Amino acid sequence: CIMPDLTSLFVAAGLTEQKANETLKNKQVSASFAEAIELAKHTCEVDKSVGNLLYQISTRLKHKHHLPTIVSYVASKKLKTDIQLNCALDYLKNNPSMPLDESKFSEASGVGVEVSPAQIEDVIEKLVEANKAELLEQRYKFNTGKILMNARKLLKFADGRIVKSELDMQILDLLGPKSEADLEPASKPKVPYFVHDYKCMMRCIHMYLHCEGMYFNFDYRYAFYLLNNIGSYIEFSTSYIALMEEHLKITGGQVRTRFPPEPNGILHIGHAKAINFNFGYAKANDGVCFLRYDDTNPEKEEEKFFKGILDMVNWLGYTPYKVTHASDYFQELFDLAVVLIKKDLAYICHQKYEELKGINPPPSPWRNRPIPESLALFEDMRKGKLDEGSTTLRMKHVMEDGKQDPVAYRIKFTPHHRTGDKWCIYPTYDFTHCLCDSIEQISHSLCTKEFQARRSSYFWLCNSVDIYCPVQWEYGRLNLQYTVVSKRKIQKLIDAGIVRDWDDPRLFTLTALRRRGFPPEALNDFCAKVGVTGNLCILEPSMLEACVRTTLNNTAPRVMAVLYPLKVTITNFPNEAGSLDIKVPDFPADESKGNHVTNLTKSIFIERSDYMEIADKSYKRFASDQSVGLRHAGLVLTLERAEKSSKGDVVELFVTCKSVEDSPKPKAFIHWVSATSCLECEVRVYSRLFKHKNPEDTSVVPGGFVTDCNSDSLSVNTAARVECSVKKAKVFDKFQFERLGYFCIDPDTTDNTMVFNRTIPLKEDAGKN
């Protein structure tokens, strides 16, 4: 079979296995990539850096007869950077005929061009001097994008990161450290008061219509008339009422929400709140909730993330009414973009990404471009006639945070996991989000507070293309201390080998929490206790841990395990057969919930920490002069002698036993397991991954969050013992190891070795010894 061979070939060239499998779905790209790899192997070893360039060639090269030439340039290290490759591909696109003029090709691609640090320093120095007056006036609020844009023109083949670093250093030399005034946020353009009235009134109308007037005693048609006459700052669709009434006919007034994650990473604890709010609100109101993947960025999306998101939604106990994708509506979205252009509310722009960055980017010189010209160029974008990064479709709208003319469409010559090569332009979040909500007849668009700046854009866009407009409602995010949840930062921890993967139990991704043993009921309970407000909620993990303890206390059956075993031999064992069956309740506080049988034998293991040769006054467990009871066995042990190794360590205790009825009551009862009928297992104990509450705060952790990692956050014990009653348990089954904590069976468990993760310790009692 060809597929496994190609998968191995692509992985060896630097792709992840998931990305390799996604590439195989596109026969043209996979064939081109495989051919490029084989050609390159004649000259060099195809490592990740070479493989990355070859992959770009296979997805972007328009004329395949140039493949051997450009691959040879990459393999011979004549083309080493993304910038050089981009220039090479542009040249081949504009000069498709053969034979190739290699001297012109080399010149256009920057072959042999080396940009020295001195050259970069000289160019940046001149550009800073040219903008010195503005820099001194605006200081750190100056938009450095235009300097970087000019630097790119003068230093075409320089490393952009080095250029940016040099610019930052020279600006620091000129302006000195940031003052308090520099750290203040930039002032926003003043929004007329009636805009806020507009939003309030619009929400009231929306609520009135959905509640059939039960809670609002006013004529919504009159309110709508007022909205249309407030002013020209925001234009309200004249067909809004008709569209709303049509929406109500379609849905019957049903509450409809949606959970719209990007499939480019694993969900984390903050998403648990979003899932609970969206699905929970719909459920509480007899409504429905969609799971919609916002799959508009094909470069970062992988199949494992799609599956992982749905898996976590189901794990939390929710079933989507329907699973949809933004890509389901690519044609509808494109058609609506055309409507926007025809209304002169969008235009084709050629400003580069560097120019659009910053607080106050320069206005687009193409803003007043004729409508027919924008329509023609938008069609050229769709057909792949324009270069990636050269052109965007922008909307004529100012957002609440002052951002002007947000991008609606951009060019990406990357195959999509669902639509393949059908599209080479993809809509942005600002364009997609509200329109998909409208298409799916969502009634309540619930999102976190950072999207408040996009609210006016949400309303404006739906009304501009004259479609039903849901209302956006914002709530405060949930953040936990002692962790990071950014996809990019978690990937950095994985790449550095600090954590194993997205489900490493030290992380706060949902897959990690499941693997550690956190029950979904506890996460839902935690989200309910946190509640929904407009404020950012920052909590220590202890509140979540308390919910976990409460849930597991009622659901995790008790068993006995010994983490650091010390052998004990009972010299007067009360049964000649050398074995007794002991009935142990699964839940001692409620024995009606069931029990299991464990085996007591002449030789047992106890915790090494449960024995002390000479006990102090506060020590209550086993000692040379202090008896101890065995839990559930009804026996009290008294020491006869202790056997030691040549190093003086106690290796075995020889004891006698009496029944509890015939002995003075011991100060403590300890857990144990049979030495001859227990299971040897591996136990992993986790603690906090980071040392500080906010590892991303550079004022506290100047070296960055990676330097704040606790090197002792994982300890692995391969010599632990557990009673045999757990032998048939499944992955993710949870237990309370008596006196030790709550533990969960890890997916690494095999037929030969059980692996347990400590979910959480028992609530600490400082006076317990």
UniProtKB/TrEMBL annotation:
Catalytic function, reaction form: tRNA(Gln) + L-glutamine + ATP = L-glutaminyl-tRNA(Gln) + AMP + diphosphate
Gene3D superfamilies: 1.10.10.2420, Glutaminyl-tRNA synthetase, non-specific RNA binding region part 1, domain 1, HUPs, Ribosomal Protein L25, Chain P
Pfam families assigned: tRNA-synt_1c, tRNA-synt_1c_C, tRNA-synt_1c_C2, tRNA_synt_1c_R1, tRNA_synt_1c_R2
InterPro entries found in the cross-reference section: aa-tRNA-synth_I_CS (IPR001412), Gln-tRNA-synth (IPR004514), Gln-tRNA-synth_Ib_RNA-bd_2 (IPR007638), Gln-tRNA-synth_Ib_RNA-bd_N (IPR007639), Gln-tRNA-synth_Ib_RNA-bd_N_1 (IPR042558), Gln-tRNA-synth_Ib_RNA-bd_N_2 (IPR042559), Gln/Glu-tRNA_Ligase (IPR050132), Glu/Gln-tRNA-synth (IPR000924)
Record keywords: Aminoacyl-tRNA synthetase, ATP-binding, Ligase, Nucleotide-binding, Protein biosynthesis
GO CC list: aminoacyl-tRNA synthetase multienzyme complex; cytosol
Family, as annotated: Belongs to the class-I aminoacyl-tRNA synthetase family.
The protein, known as: Probable glutamine--tRNA ligase
Organism this protein belongs to: Ciona savignyi
